[in-house]
Amino acid sequence: MATRGFTTFVLEASWSTGLRLDDYVVHGVGDPAQIMREEFQGQYVFWNTQEYLDLIRWMRHYNLTHPDRPRLHFVGNDLGYPGPGAFDQVSAYVSAHRPDLAKRLDSLYTGLKPARGTQAGTWMNDQLGKDLSLRRAEADLATQALTLLRAAGQPKGSTGGAYDWAVQNATAVAQSFTGYAFPDEEFSERMRYRDQVMADNTTWWLAHTNGKILLASNNGHVAYFSDNPQEFPKPVGAFLHKKLGAKYVNIGLTFAQGSINALPDYTAQQPTIYTVPPTPAGHNEHTLDQVRYRDFALDLRTAPAAARDWLTIARPTRSYGLYWSTEDPQTALARSYDVLIHLHQVEAAHLR
């Protein structure tokens, strides 16, 4: 990661979760295992694995043992849970630089900021269960706080990125509450907003820091085209490509067989390990698994003409998100990704 100029690992997790884990990676604050247990809940429960804990600890170790090199960072780009850390960042800035706004900001954030020790999964479930009018009222309060900060502008004579950082944290809070303000019948609009938010937060970090970003998300988010446009109309990858052009390179993953973690249904709280049998004939993975290499990476942009002709045709392709599904959407791999990694067999990550 670091040897190739990548300095930030961005995960499809809440912005405030990223704040906590980055504080550990950079400053050694907190216990990453505990933070993961508290934050990786609900839709993020899949990230609470031994593999991610090992990665986060390695990032901390790298920063400690390479003080002469750019520090590694951990960032969450999603909006699921507006943890107290983002509120605290905004309030600390206002108290230090615009104390005249502190009382107004506090009145707007009172009732929105989760209490210390709040379980992220419980908060997200409770938020979805609230009456739509209340969710919209809370989104309005969070947006007013962001507007207040933006209208104040950066204090004259101030230097550094303190103001930009405060605005971004206020933005993240507003994003979260806005995401929950969509009615249930506008699910696709909510998902479009969410994917745009993940792209916006990723590009904000890129614009305000040095180094490259390694973004981890599922195939459906990083792709250029959605394989389920009725529910997920525009992926993160489409937004990032529009913003960054050729600076955005995405990688799709396919595999022939193995095991994965997935929730059995919409009511389940903990994933189950599912065995994935070999892909049948006619699927993209079935043909890819006939290549003489057991595992391989393929640059779809420079693949031979015959291969590209095959790769641009939509075929059934396995796609797994939160829930276990045997539906295999039609995907044209060369249209969706720049690079493809195909593995013969995978193993479900080790949940903690």
Unreliable stretches (pLDDT < 50, length at least 5) are none
Helix share bin: 40-55%
N-to-C order of helices and strands = EHHHEHHHHHHEHHEEHEHEEHE
Largest sheet: 4 strands, mixed
Mean pLDDT metric: 96
Total strands: 9
Shape summary = globular
Label the structural class: alpha/beta
Strand order of the largest sheet: 5-4-9-6
> Rounded to an integer, what's the Rg over CA atoms?
21 Å
Number of helices: 14
> How far do the termini sit from each other?
24 Å
Overall description:
Helix 1 (15-27) runs antiparallel to helix 2 (32-39) and helix 4 runs antiparallel to helix 5. By secondary structure, the chain is α/β, with parallel strands linked by helices. It is globular and about 65 Å long. The mean pLDDT is 96. The chain has 14 helices and nine strands. 45% of the residues lie in helices and 15% in strands. The two termini are 24 Å apart. The longest helix has 22 residues, at 187-208. It has helices at residues 15-27, 32-39, 50-65, 84-97, 102-109, 120-129, 132-152, 162-179, 187-208, 219-222, 236-244, 284-288, 305-311, 333-336, and strands at 6-14, 73-78, 212-216, 251-262, 272-276, 296-299, 315-316, 330-331, 339-346. Strands 5-4-9-6 form a four-stranded mixed sheet.
